[in-house]
Design goal:
The protein has about 140 residues and is mostly helical. The chain is built from six helices and no strands. The longest helix has about 30 residues, at about 35-65. The two termini are about 30 Å apart.
Length: about 140
Amino acid sequence: MLDLWLAIGHHLIIFALFGVLAVELVLVRRDMIPAVVARVTRVDAWYGVLAGAILVVGFSRAIFAAKGWAYYSHNGFFWAKIATFVLIAVLSVFPTIQYIKWQRSGQVPAPRVAHVRLFLYAELVLFAFLPIFAAAMARGYGEFR
């Protein structure tokens, strides 16, 4: 039963994480007013919370669920998924810093908006690889010893 609950939680959190990223992309525009900057900052905080939750639930699933750590730790697609998630996390730092700066200054420089949107698009593109790697991994592809 633990395997089922961890799988459900893992999938729901990853969908929520994607949704939050999509909301950020919709909210970040050149004509942002302070209220929108405050909103996107709060949304971005949820992005961080959900990213942390997905790590906790995902690694709990890899360690305690049906297949166990021995299965995942010897799978190239598992490590590709982890590396992609880390890369997405690194890319998310720049938008977060910009949101904080914008909120403090009350100004949203148009060139910075374009840069932030570029980072958000890059995160979305990389996000698409996560279910690809997960599907391959779940079917036993990428195993090494």
